[in-house]
Every structure is written in C-alpha cells, then in structure tokens.
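Issue 218. Parser rejects a valid record. Input:
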Amino acid sequence: MCDEISCGYSPSDKPLPEVTDGERRRFIKGLAALPLATVLAYPDLAQAAGENATTPISIKTPSGGTAMGHIAMPDVTPAPTVLLIHEWWGLNDQIKSVAAEFAKQGYIALAVDMYGGQYATDRDGAKALMSSMDAKAGTEQLVTLIDYLKTHDKSTGKVGTIGWCFGGGWSLNASIATAVDATVIYYGRCTKTPQELASLNSPVLGHFGTLDQHINGEMVGGFEKAMAEAGKTQLTVNWYEANHAFANPTGSRYDEADAKLAWDRTLAFYKKHLM
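Output the parser choked on:
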C-alpha cells in the first residue's frame, strides 16, 4: 500500500539472481565485485557492501542538532559528490550499498540518516518514523551535509542529490533549500508551486512509473507546469511502464529492465553535470 510520499513493503516474488557460495564469500571479504542489482537483492551482500565501503559521520548543524550519515570514498580524488536520501524506512543497508556503488563510479557518496540511527522494517514503523521527523530540522540536516560535501578536502565542490520515494521528495526539497549542481528524483512527491521553485538552480532528472497511483501523471504534470512557470527549463522526466518503487530489488514491484535503464540515465546525468 502506497501514499503520496512512501510505499509499503511486500517482499519480491521474482527469482533472485544466482550467486554461488564462492562469489558470496569473496564479495563479503571485499575480494570480488557483483552487479548492484544482485547486491541489493541479498540482505547479507547489501550489508557487506555497506560495512566494507562506508564510514559513519556525524556533523553538528547550526542550530545545535546533528546531521548523520555514512560516506563512501572513491579511489581517485578530488571527486564530485552525491548526497543520497533514503526511503521512508530510514538508512538501511540497501541505501548504504548504493552509496558504495556511487563510490565505485568515481563519486564521494554520502547516504544521509534522517532518522538519527533508527530504521523500520514494516509499514507502521516507517510511518511512525516519518511522522515524527521535523521538516525544518530535516532541511537543516540536508543543507549541513551538502555544505560539508562542497567543502570536503577531497571534493571538487560539485554536489548532486538523489532520493527514492520519501527521499525523492527530499532530494527536491534539499535542492530548493540550497544550491546544488544536479537533482535526481525517483518517484518522489513533487507538488510545488512556481514560487516554491524560485530558488531551484539545478537541472532535475525524474524517474516515474505509469502504474504508480499516487506519484502519478497528474502530480508530475503539475510539477512540469510549475517548473515552466518558474522559468526552470532544465527538467527531464522519464516515464517507465512500472509501479512505485520499481527500482528496489527487494520489493514486489521491482522491474529489472526499467531499474537498469533509470540507473544508466542517472549516471549519464551526473556525468554531464558533475564530472
């Protein structure tokens, strides 16, 4: 069951990609590479990817709060940076492993933890965490981490944001709150007025599913219209014959072909605007 900014979880009934015991052991030890979709499909592999490649960080915000996350570093620096914003579940191994993959692609990747170390495994828990989050504090966390990435001693100063579902909406919110160089939205809430979009300066790439009942054509069409009225012309909207959360290999709505296409388009978008 989904709503405007989030989606309930039903385990995938699709066959998992085959991974031999030898491949699993080598990957967990950090001695082998596997495709991102394969890693995300197996909890133990996602956990290994997150643990092996990311490091926790904690930074004070201007108001005295804390901005937390896990950062993954590329082999070659200085490098452009990406801020990843999790689904309504919180920062779990899946998102950490995506950060690890971005590092392999040459980016400093920081997966934010907007729930202060908590995460959920069922809808009720996720809804409670999301409902308890203060929007002002959340915005301050994201702006603090974006500033951190801009000024990181191994950064080129360029920052992109990306988020899924709950995080997709926050990817847009963060880019409105402070200047970034590229914004990616995966099926996130994008209801904005032209006035709210006035401070947005980055190009935006959106991935949406035609079968999504809430982040739908009406909402996205309204976003496109508001962007045009605000004079924001750098918007690319991609539609996939897929449902909400189609890029999450652990869910029943996962669409392998469309997830790969969206990922490839995201990498090309970042290469154009961040590299």
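Fixed in the parser; the record now loads. The chain has nine helices and eight strands.
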